[in-house]
Amino acid sequence: MSLTISTMLAVAGTGTGAAAGGKVAQAAPAAPGIGGALVALVLVLALILGLAWLLRRLPGARLGLHANDQLRLVTSLNVGTKERLLVVDVGGEQLLLGVSAGGISSLHRLSQPLAMPAAPTMPKMPDFAELLAKRLRKET
Asked: What Cα–Cα distance (Å) separates residue 67 from each residue in 14, 28, 58, 90?
């Protein structure tokens, strides 16, 4: 039994194993081809164009970029799949607008402005250091 194991080890150490390793190294490409680089370039350009198109299509994507004090949306109400009622504050005057697939029309000028909704506020969170000290005191 020991003779066969030593014979196998001797055969593995000869040129047969080295030749197999040489074939693997010869089969591996040295560098990626120009075709792969062109495919990657086309994919990156398609991704950029797709994201630009998506950004244009998203409603309100540009609202955060251009804050305007003279024109402000007070409230909106969906009345159908493509119809909405909007109350818009324009320079201190509020207008009721109807928005549909066919266009936008002014429905009414409000004599008494609606109250601007308050911005939602987050509840006061306890300080992390206090929570940690409390937890450490509890466990000891």
From this structure: 77, 56, 17, 14
